[in-house]
Write a structure and sequence with these properties.
heterodimer, A: 258 residues, alpha/beta, six-stranded mixed β-sheet, four-stranded antiparallel β-sheet, 11 helices, 10 strands, 34% helix, B: 296 residues, mainly alpha, MetI-like fold, 2 domains, 14 helices, flat
Chain lengths: 258, 296
């Protein structure tokens, strides 16, 4: 048995600062950790840097020009900035705010897109298995098994979003980042995704950005509250919601701003 | 209390009348624009139809004597536009081979690096290039190719001038099509660890395929009717030739030749009708491709 509590942390964020323009920090000196097989919610008002923090975890923030990053993020003890981006993104998958299946691909092709786009050649039987497993994991299999060869964009918004989750987990990543994954969906599709996330945390570690406090309270194990680029408070979701230590967290949770 | 201003109610009838007058004015304007189009097509069809037969497509242009004999006895002029047709196809094909890959790559480059100074510079150059009169492109191709490479008028020189005409059209349409792809699609690809070049050729190009193909087809239909630069480069040739280093004819060049020979006037109409139908079908093809592979 390993009793070292550090080993439970998949991601360690160490004094991370990110600036889009010199001197203007979107994320400022954040230190935090993400526990294995749990859901960590990042909350905060618009523009507080929560998406930037999330994107930093698989270095998607580097797509912006002139970005400046200080500090470090460790994935299983290894700095993600020393890994190749391609390797990192295979370990840390991402689901976006709006469902974004590739419009030129069928449902089937979308699920295995991670492989085909990386030139990983698989046998037909392997691909079939990956597609079925991934779609079953996101509870989409029964809905689409008859139409695997139709374009993914024919699905409803909620189905498309689950397809995008399937595409991300087909690679069997360690961590799945979700950037407000339900903000473009209706309440029924939202609750399906939430149920799904509860299931997925058994296999993966999930980090979720949300501006929906009740969603964070419903499904997350740990929460982080960010304000103006700083991590104000983090901890067990139950504790943070019932007995916030910082007055800013309390003000946000009681709806005084945001 | 609702506040009523007299201006809000008094003039409703007058405004309705103004509105309908303006409506009729707009409709009349559109009808006036359409009339010449029908007149042109009708004229070409009526006058050109008589000369169109199998020989029209398979035989080269007749010489003056043959045409004069036929014209004086009231027969159909023998021969056709085969030399122009093969010349046009040869040059369009060659021009496309130069311009399509270059244009697509440049368009993608400008789209990907749109904010950099170099990309902006290239973009304004393509705008300038689009405004250059085609005869000047002909002179340039004459200087570069006719004088220095083929040492004489040639299909290659014609292709170069046509390719330069195609370039800005393809570059602009590529950039504009790419712009329509939502950023989230690119992000999805990158989030899967997709290398940059693969994102371009497995996501960007297939997703925007219809727009790219439309741009290419419209550029082709644009150069099919181009005459001025070919006069200085391809020159024209009475025989069917597929040698790129030799002069060739082209359909629009033939129309000019026919026009200059009083015995061949009838062929002007037939060749024009053909050219117009050909260009029109390219446009229709572009449309059907655009609707068939539309993802964005």
């Amino acid at each position: 048995m390993n009793n070292n509590p550090q080993s439970d942390n998949v991601l360690e964020i160490r004094d991370l600062s990110i600036a889009y323009e010199p001197g203007k920090y979107a994320v400022n000196g954040v230190t935090a950790s993400v526990k294995r097989n749990s859901i960590t919610a990042i909350m905060g008002p618009s523009g507080c840097g929560k998406s930037t923090l999330l994107r930093a975890m698989n270095r998607m923030h580097e797509l912006y020009p002139n970005i400046e990053t200080k500090g470090d993020i460790l994935l299983d003890g290894k700095s993600i900035f020393s890994m190749s981006v391609i390797e990192l993104r295979r370990k840390v998958g991402m689901v976006f705010q709006r469902p974004n299946p590739f419009p030129n691909m069928t449902i089937y092709e979308n699920v295995v897109a991670g492989f085909s786009l990386n030139d990983i050649r698989l046998k037909k039987s392997q691909r079939d298995e990956i597609v079925e497993n991934a779609l079953r994991n996101v509870t989409l299999w029964d809905e689409v098994k008859e139409s695997l060869y139709r374009k993914g964009t024919f699905l409803s918004g909620g189905q498309q979003q689950r397809l995008c989750v399937a595409r991300a987990i087909a690679f069997n990543p360690e961590v799945l980042l979700l950037d407000e994954p339900t903000s473009a969906l209706d309440p029924i599709a939202t609750s399906k995704i939430e149920d799904l996330l509860g299931e997925l945390k058994k296999k993966y570690t999930l980090v979720l950005v949300t501006h929906n406090m009740s969603q964070a309270a419903r499904i997350s194990d740990d929460s982080m509250f960010m304000y103006l680029g700083e991590l104000v408070e983090s901890g067990r979701t139950g504790t943070l919601f019932t007995t916030p230590k910082d007055p800013r967290t309390e003000a946000y949770l009681t709806g005084k701003f945001g | 209390m609702r506040v009523m201003y007299p201006e809000m109610t008094d003039n409703i009838n007058r405004r309705n009348r103004t509105n309908s007058r303006f409506r009729y004015l707009v409709i009349a304007g559109s009808v006036i624009t359409v009339i010449p189009i029908f007149l042109i097509v009708g004229n070409l069809a009526v006058k050109g139809f008589r000369q169109i037969n199998l020989a029209f497509f398979t035989q080269p242009a007749p010489d003056t004597f043959q045409a004069m004999m036929a014209a004086s006895s009231g027969e159909i002029i023998p021969g056709g536009i085969a030399n122009g047709l093969t010349g046009s196809l040869l040059m369009v094909l060659l021009a496309s081979l130069f311009a399509i890959p270059l244009g697509l790559m440049t368009g993608i480059y400008i789209y990907e690096n749109g904010t950099t100074r170099y990309a902006r510079f290239i973009r304004s150059l393509t705008e300038i290039l689009q405004g250059v009169p085609s005869i000047i492109l002909g002179i340039i191709a004459y200087l570069w190719v006719v004088k220095n490479i083929t040492k004489g008028y040639s299909a290659l020189a014609g292709s170069v001038s046509l390719a330069i005409m195609m370039l800005p059209l393809i570059i602009r349409s590529t950039e504009e099509t790419m712009r329509m792809i939502p950023l989230s699609i690119r992000e999805a690809a990158f989030a899967l660890g997709t290398p940059y070049y693969k994102m371009i050729y497995k996501i960007l190009i297939p997703v925007s395929f219809s727009g790219l193909a439309t741009g290419v087809l419209l550029a082709i239909s644009r150069i099919l009717g181009e005459t001025a630069p070919l006069m200085l480069t391809a020159l024209g040739s009475p025989a069917i030739s597929l040698d790129v280093t030799r002069p060739v004819s082209a359909v629009p060049l033939l129309i000019w030749d026919f026009y200059n020979d009083p015995n061949m006037v009838n062929l002007v109409w037939s060749a024009s009708l053909f050219l117009m139908v050909f260009v029109l079908s390219m446009n229709l093809l572009a449309r059907s491709v655009a609707s068939k592979h539309k993802y964005i």
